[in-house]
Amino acid sequence: MSIHVASLIAKAAESDGGGFHPPSITDFFPPVFFEGTVFAFSRINLIQILATAVLVILFVVGTRRMKIVPTRFQSVVEMGLDFVRVNIAHDLLGRKDGNRFLPILTTLFFMILFMNLTGIIPGLNIAGTSVIAVPLLLALVSYVTFIYAGVKKSPGNFFRNALMPPGLPWFLYILIIPLEFLSTFIIRPVTLTLRLLMNMIVGHLMLVLFFSATQFFLFTLSGFWSVLGVGTLAFGFVFTLFELLVGFLQAYVFTILTAVYIQLAVAEEH
């Protein structure tokens, strides 16, 4: 665990009566620079920059001098790119539209994946997507791409078809139009944002809770309670592996939903 998480664990075990008090959400984002100002730069901002830098470096190095017979590193990079291209872009959008929107889908997937995985990396231990700014920005990118794709495909009919499904009696549109507007243009970006944000926050809270409880049972209570400490430690490691899966799934779900929205926008009826 990182020094930061270790300090949270120590803080969690402190109290007047020696009781267990888990850390609050406000303990996870200590400022690093410009504390007390509107320009406060927190530890999680450093992690976001680090994850972005590592991602850019990996892809620049992996694609700079590509060979017909790839090296192992080039093969890994190509496998990652092919996963998004084949299983998301081409599978949902077809080859033509898939290639058009492949850059943005690839960027979404790997940016979310790398920032999610910082939550389980020793020394970092918090996901770059666990503050609302990043999920909200990515959801807005997805939202704007969806609208752009629809307007580009059918400049005059996109919004009409999105809000007024054909074949319904005219009086039903009084009810359908507000519902479709709410569902298509409001709920979609909100759910994209909250799904990613909540999963990463809850995952981090659970990990800190398990390891805080381990510290408390083993070193504060000790004795018989150490058995519970071993249990919470085991749960912590198991949940760490689970968070690895969740980090990948959240990147996949966010990207595939974006592709689904684009597919709906470019469908022939629009």
How would you describe the overall organization of this protein?
The protein has 270 residues and is mostly helical. The chain has one domain. The protein is built from seven helices and two strands; from the N terminus they run H-E-E-H-H-H-H-H-H. The chain has helices at 3-13, 43-64, 72-117, 133-153, 158-163, 173-221, 226-265; strands spanning 31-33, 41-42. The protein has a two-stranded antiparallel ribbon with strand order 1-2. Helix 3 (72-117) packs across helix 7 (226-265). The chain is globular.
Features:
mainly alpha, two-stranded antiparallel sheet, single chain, 270 residues
What's the arrangement of secondary structure elements?
Elements: H1 3-13, E1 31-33, E2 41-42, H2 43-64, H3 72-117, H4 133-153, H5 158-163, H6 173-221, H7 226-265
Antiparallel strand pairs: 1-2
Give helix % range: over 70%
Beta-strand proportion: under 5%
Strand numbers in spatial order across the main sheet: 1-2
Distance between the termini: 51 Å
Spans where pLDDT lies below 50 across 5 or more residues: none
